[in-house]
User: Fold these one by one.
Assistant:
Number 1:
Amino acid sequence: MLKYHFDWSVVTSGKYFEWLVSGFKVTLQLSALSIVLAFLLGLLIAVMRMSNNRPVRWFAHAYLEFFRNTPLLVQIFFWYFGSYKILPTVVNDWLNNSNFEFAAAVIALTIYTSAFIAEDIRSGVLAIPKEQMEAARSAGFSYIRSMQYIILPQAVRLTVPPLVNQFLNLAKNSSLAMTIGVMELTYQARQVESYTFKGFEAFTAATVVYVAISFFITALVNIYNEKVLNIHKAA
Amino acid sequence: MDQFFNTAVITDNFTYFMIGRFPHGPLGGLGLTLYLAATSCVLSFFGGLILGLLSITRFPAIRYPAIAFINLVRGMPLLMVIFWMYFLLPALFGKATESQTVIMALTLFTSAYMSRIVVAGIEGIPKGQTEAAISTGLKPWQAMLYIVLPQGLRNMIPSFVNQFVSLIKDTSLAFIVGVSELTHVGTQINNRTMAYPTEIFVFIAVVYFIICYAFTSLSRWLEQRLAWRKAI
């Protein structure tokens, strides 16, 4: 252990530093794109889950349970290796001509995360007193419009902290995209390790970046909780 | 049907999916997945208990390092923890097998999350219980061990089960260091047959789903039962 020769210059400058920076950029792109899509899909699933129409509600429920109870890695492999049989030829051709690894990772991360986001949104909605819905309906709003104008705007405000945590999870989960060859941060750290045998330095660099993202986002959530929701952490 | 969804690739390899080459070779497939999950679950229960207690102790010199460590691990992707173990363990303790590496990584990672459950469970017990225990002459650690923890642990059970479900899903990452659990076996069969990726990965997903859904339902049932017991 102590015979190890530290050489931090490997990861602080030069070619390998650039690899890590480009990996960090891909991690951010992958996470940002997936979280936006996952929020929209999660919102849709949450509304379907609370619908009065039974088949719609059951479909949303089945969707949630299935994607929450299977490993993300298996889902990534499914979209990367196995989705061509269920997707139309047009979509397949388009995917094969673009950056398919990236697209498969976005699809997998989006669908996996949307199931968790839908549940967060639903618990946000359940926290809004049901009289609000009753009042909105008696004021003449339809169910959809009541959701749109009265319930969801309030629920989303409460859902911000868990949503931000989902973003954090997603940023960490995006490391699994390396298994299908997306050149994100973990992939690049491993590349640096196999080219230089400086694993300790490479993994430290990547770890510092992930932990920094995590601390930054957690701090934002704490500020939001205190300033907007007026929840103070117990001493 | 046979064109669209070839079930032969599943039935022909079924035992390989379930137990790998066992008993003629090492355990693999679903059996190894469950072994990894169960072992890490037991170890991280104790790891989580210790980390949780350390992170709420009265001594700042212990509390702050414990909290920092928990936040560090929680800020890392599991894949990164596995890579750390992969080259730290041999450096620290000499040779470690891939399975041991993965069990250590899963244990460390899950312990950090378990510790938060432990803290929440302890904080859920009214403070009066500790005060009453101390006023009857128990020392603070005795009050924790005999009065607070037994009650707190019961409330933590549903969260522990949920964490176990995450653990089962997380064992799939053992794939990355070549441990032949269910996901790895699936990719092996996929590489060998080349023609049925949809069938193989749908089948694997369904196997994980059945197991995880059973535990998710168990945790939901326990939660309702505990709520009911508290109500009376």
Number 2:
Amino acid sequence: MTDLLQLVFSGMATGSIYALAALGFTLLWQASGTVNFAQGEFVMLPAFAMLAFGNLGLPLPLAFLATCVLAIGVLGWGFKRGIADPLLKFGLMPIVVATIGLAIALRNGVRAGISAQAFPFPSLFADKLFTLGGVTVSLADVGTLAIAVALVLGTQAFLARTVTGRAMQAVAQNTESATVLGIDVPRMVFYTFAINAVLACAAALLVTPTYLAKFDMGESLGTKAFFAAIIGGFNNSRGALLGGVIVGVGENLAAAYISPAYKDAVALVLFMGVILFKPQGLLGKRVERKV
Amino acid sequence: MTPPEAPSAPPPQGGATSGPAKPVPQWHASKPVILAVLTLVLLAVPPFLKNYGIYLFTYWLVFVIATMGLNLTVGYAGQKSLGHAAFFGIGAYTVAILMKAGVSFWLGLPAAMALCFAIGLAIGFPALRVQALYLAFATLGFNTAVWLVLRNEEWLTGGTFGINNIARPSLFGLVLDKPLAFYYFTLGVAILLAWWLWRLLASPWGKAFTALRDNPIRAESLGIDTRAYTLLSFAIGAVYAGVAGALFAPLVEFIEPAPFGVSTSIMMYLMVVVGGAGYFFGPLLGAAVGVLLPEWLRFAQGWYLFVFGVAVVALMLWLPDGLLSIPERLRARRLAKAARAAALAEPVEAQA
């Protein structure tokens, strides 16, 4: 029983990181119809940026802030202007292909330009273990879960409670009406890209101590984030959290009780199950077809 | 009772969501000439090549066969599949395992085709429930699952050690183990399959596939059984990949899980898009780019995949509809120029 609880808990910590990546992905989709297949690489790059700033002698919090600024510029503005804007008018396929190409380029650019090795990454948390009712949990798991959940709920609150957030939602729901109401649509869409970049940096900060900074760390992370987003509901931000946690816990349980060899198939099986019975995801709303 | 639809994206800024409708294959005056030249090259050039050149040509043909199938699924029926390499692998392993068990290639091939058809139908079912984006992920995940089975079930697939010494088949008593002989055999299969696909696309079925792609709702309202055509486009595409896999196994004589992973699927998808999705000859170009580009990019060594990725992004930005859309774009540009010239000429006439 305690084993089970331990697995569930550490699964929730991993899952909350998936949720961060999934949330950015969902926001991009809602606001502009951008599908980012390079989402995992958007987590990998900040990890390397933070290491680089760390080598320059910046302490981790400052390195994180500097990376966020850089990411908003490159992964937010640069990505929007350079790839999303020119391609969105051609529909879904070109943007999917281009972001796949971008992922390949980023992954292998890091591999050839920096190194194919895995680098250790400083953890935010001390190496401490607690025992709660017979269950041993690490401080890193508790901290990761707390920060990730706070970020997801914070993003949600920002979207629901602030004027800017509501304007962003308006743009996501109906671009034309938003324009008529005098909302600065391009700016709101850019904010979405910026938030996605910051969330990716946060995910990098939390995930890299365990995953290690490696050129291909984004590959599985990206895929799992997509599955998490879809399981939870693609048009619902809270769904990202639920989906992420479900995938994280499911993977841990499958690795322990079924076979570690098939751990990576868990997200897929859950996803298949969900879309066959609830195509809009667990928390998603039905959207009727537009003719 | 229509299947529920996945949440659709808001229309992107810019309004227009669909690209120009692509033509169903038609005979142009130039087409027979192009075909004749192409056939001549494919028949006459390889004998003058070294073994590695012949190998590359054969390798390219295998990918042409696979991407023809994917072009049907993606380009003509509009189903975004990113799991094509899974069928490629299923075909290759089916033939390899059966041949190792002493079964003839000529029984292995239909077995591979039948298996791919059945699994393709099964994978088509989620496609009935979900839309473009989800489907891309579902097929991607399916590919991962197949890859995991190939890697983990050692009793069947040899796991990471793979299956080696796969014999080349023989045809009418001729053993096709010389590179050139096997090349001509592959060419024959490719031509046969291309002809069959051509017939299919020119038939009412082909029209139904393109109707499904261009406007699924309208297609349904016209009485096209969209469910059946969606499933069929997957299953037929999968059969092409299965045949390609069945040829790939004896060509490389050693198979392991690596070439049948998600990256190959993405590569095949790129081949289709680069060549021009929904253009009949797209796969010829796309597969050539996909197979030859790595050869040309050898100078880049470690940077090769980086250059490749950048090239893909650049190509999408420049030609979102693929290489074969160039003539159409040129024509459109000429027409626009003519229209502009006419518009400029008009006020002058009015003054006169």
Number 3:
Amino acid sequence: MTILRRGSAWLLYLALLVPVSLLAATADHSQFKALQRPFASGEDVTRACLRCHTEAAKQVMATRHWTWDYTNPDTGQRLGKKTMLNGFCIGDRSNEAFCQSCHVGYGWKDASFDFSDESKVDCLACHNTGNYVKLAGLAGHPPLVRTETSPGSGKFAEPVDLAAVARNIGVTSRRTCGTCHYYGGGGDGVKHGDLDSSLNDPPRSLDIHMSSDGPDFSCSTCHVADQHKIAGSRISVTAADPHAPILRGERSARNPSTCQSCHGERPHKASVVHASRLNDHTRTLACQTCHIPTFARGGVPTKMAWDWSTVGRLDSEGKPFLTRNAKGHVIYDSRKGDFVLGEDVVPNYVWFDGTVTYVQPDTRIDPSSRVPINVFHGTAGAANARIWPVKTFHSRQPYDRVHMTLLVPHTAIPDDTALWYNFDWAKALQAGADATGAPYSGQYGFVDTSMLWPITHMVAPKEQALDCAQCHSSQSRLAAVPGIWLPGKERNSLLDTLGFSLAGLALLGVLVHGLLRIVAHQRRRRY
Amino acid sequence: MTERLYLFTRFERFWHWSQAALIITLLFSGFAIHGSHALLDFRTAVEVHEMAAWLLIALWIFAIFWHFTTGQWKQYIPTLTNIQRVTLYYAHGIFTGAPHPYKVTRKRKHNPLQRIAYLGVLVLINPLIWVSGLFYLFWGRLEAHVPDWLGLEQVATVHTFAAFLMLIFLIVHVYLTTTGHTPLAHIRAMITGWEGRD
């Protein structure tokens, strides 16, 4: 093909494609009169949005993206980022202005935030198509003047042009969801292990569904939203979904973000013999177990462990410092402690029925052994449970030695009590306790904790799926999973010993018999 | 002077040798699945084992049909008559060059020891392998319908036990083929159908 012909083919392609992508929606926001003006604040934009999308704010306000507060109907536990504890940055409260850069609202900086003010809903966070950021420290506001990204960092963010963002509004994308969900725990890939910025434009080998060489799914392709309520959550997981695929247009109460909702429960088709054998595995294994061979495979490391107890080492000049590994990733930060990073990590595996319980701010812990911040429940072999891959995260974090509770430190908002600026645990924990209202004895120590994260993204192409021997061998990946019996992994050693001994004796017996025959034959010939 | 006898029909020979090949394949791939050797990877071993199993099942169904329509099942009726003499032959006479005490005819192809051994294969080893193997094969669909005490582990143990019995049978059987009037006489008979006699 000549360059000219190739060029005209491209032009034709663009001419066909561009109107289609514009016409995908029935409205082009760049033409809306209400958006042809400058905006003074995010709230100002939201008021413009709500003139047409009259119900949008009410819908958002009914979701966890707004409330950060959720009562798990399975366990009755009060969850949600507002009160939940974890092993990463530990807790939200007292640090709101920092953490709420990921809230779909403007201005939640402390308990006085008005959760009923519709203008505080941030439409742009999810619906921008670029050039929109919310900086940590601004309580969910985008920078409207040139702003240092964190105090003393020397890095500056340019102000957001709200009008330009508003006129280029669009559907959610991997990038918009990822702005928060990739960076949980304070950095790219830190928390989940299966969600990081490598998924913005993943190669096929990293994610078969989201790759542009594949179906190019966005998050919302699976996490289907209805009235801004988004399906699928790690704190109430659908662990088993033993049903046929959901038909397009079918009214279904099922979670549309399970593998089975598209693939059904007997998805393997390849060869007759092999496919039925694989399909029988779906009663025991989550799809993710074989189809996500490792997590954090996109080149972004995930945190596997975090030791808060080593916070506060200073360099020879008395200044905080960072230590980096050979790849340039931080493994010690004076403000945060030591990190263990992992890439291309083989998951752990647990029986999981979707029920998770969490240590609550008032749960009494036993510091003599590693404290599980969350527990994945599931009975081995139960019809509602599957073997799931998980990331096991280890932390060493502060607790109250008298009340035996985990403590939330005040860390991020630059003031006299913030750990990241004064390295004083006593002050930081007192300020944290003041904000959460938790009882605090003043005596703190550090306790080892663990936390599980379900691995469900970064689904590899089928040729990268685990081969049989990864589990069916003496080095089985499922060695630590209770209540299963696997051919190739387990065998009855008594029967083996007995069987091979008897077979050996039989062989020996016939060999001796044969030898005697030969000897006898020779002797007969001689006489 | 050697007298010749047409002992094994074409079907019997076909059945015998294809069964032999399948059973050896099944033992080899089965012990690979079991983890006793690593000469086949797990997936190949499972696929080979499963395919050979289906072929053997088909062959057995056909052979059972053949045995009943031809009346050849009578060859396996056990008898104690002369069993002592035959046993004594293998323990002593075979070394002194004594003649085999049992005269094979087309109506009685197997001596009393053979009858017992083959009957054991037919009524003990084969059913154990069939039942446990089919349970194993369809475990994914059966598991929900079997009592709690029966797990895949029990099914696999029975299957492995039967495999060991088959292995022991195979060793002894192969050796005993060399005990004809010449070491290859029995094997030749199983290939050509013609058995030579002293």
Number 4:
Amino acid sequence: MRYLVILKAQQPDGPPPAELMAAIEALGVEATNAGVLLDVGGLAPSAAGARVELSGGRLNVVDGPFAEAKEMISYAVYQVRSKDEVVEWASRFMKVHRDNWPGWEGDSVISKVFGPEDFAPQQ
Amino acid sequence: MAATDPDHAVQRAVTTAVETVWRIEAPRIIAALTRIVRDVGLAEELAQDTLVIALEQWPARGIPDDPGPWLMATAKHRAIDLVRRRVRYQEKLAEMGRELEIVPESEQDAIDEALDDHVGDDVLRLIFIACHPVLPTEGRTALTLRLLGGLSTEEIARAFLIADTTAGQRIVRAKRTLAAKRVPFELPPPGELPQRLSSVLEVIYLIFNEGYSATAGDDWMRPSLCEEALRLGRLLAGLMPTESEVIGLVALMELQASRLGAREGPGGEPILLGDQDRGRWDRLLIRRGLAAVARAAEIGGVVGPFVLQAEIAACHARARSTAETDWPRIVALYRVLVYIWPSPVAELNLAVAVGMAEGPAKGLQLADTIAASGALDNYPQLPAVRADLLERLGRDAEARSEFARAAALTRNTRERELFLIRSER
């Protein structure tokens, strides 16, 4: 089963420490080589993005930045055997931040992507 | 009520955490232990003991911050203790004037070596040992799913529609055979690598195919088995990133798996390639598959059957419809495949491709040659392919009887229904 994990965080000022980037890379290699990490990418600050809203029949385009307390930092797609497994990988990812960037706070939001297992054929 | 009891809830959360970490780490732990104790059966038992220790200790002491390394360290200590006890036992035997079966120095080496870090290498060796040619194919498959996939005996039994006891026996027998034949826990020498690697690739692809088009049973597909094979393939690709056939196998599986969601109708009925809604193909898997095909081409070297089949799958993945498919290229690729890896099934696929590229008459000619050879007498796809070509030639009566024959031959319920419908129209 496949999960989309979106990392939202409030970053301390300044660039992320090099140790963090190295630890993230090592964990990424581990998850890739374990065959569970399918795709991953960093997300630019919301200033670079936009929002297209449809409300009351009206289209409205809003450019970033948005006022959310936490910015979306990155996404990752995992294919694992259970929700518990993706929770474990996401926890490892968060621990890497805790151990390498004091003051960093964030959440990994885990969403299940519908898959064939969710549409079992009627017998 | 048990569900609202906080202690019970904590206990359950810890149990889930232990089992999850265990599932993720089991192949690496079993692999590391096998290097120390030189016996996969014993290694698996020791690994299971470690799981039990975690289940006993974590609820009381809390889940360790790094649960994976904790499990690995605990498991290694147990294995090393065992080896030390064995060494002492051997020394005692020696004192009593008996012959030494195991040289203590080599065991000491094993202990020293165990403290080094070779995780990736160990997992690779475990794959090669689980797929060793001394084992029958079904033993290789069961052992691979057990040791590397972390599947339980019941899950393996369910995947292959066999009794739990049968699955259990296959695993036990495979472990015993490896021990009895003293199969060393090492990578094959360079000269034997291609042959041994092809056994590994075959096992993984067999698991994938069992999920992709189940040979028997009520479900046409078992996607979780495809996912498991993909995971094993990606794991192998991570360990052998420069072997083009490994990358080719992963590419092939990614591309085939990209069609899983489009291969089945709402009632579970099969939808064949030409009729699939390509909008339902999985773009992420296609992208990964095409990237892997490109990587395999970059690696170069001798082109093997998996790279070729991946190239063929890539032709389908790139096409927006059956009509826009590069059939001449597919024919050319199948011709090479049949040449380097002769098999009647590959020839039958060539007949299908020729039927698309050069017309049904040419395709039928090839299919008839295969039929005359008798090599695929019990293979339901042969009459199905012939039926399809006959139908396109307007020979409807013959087509109907061939579809009926295909229906009688298949052991898969869903496939039989499809063939029956076509035999009646």
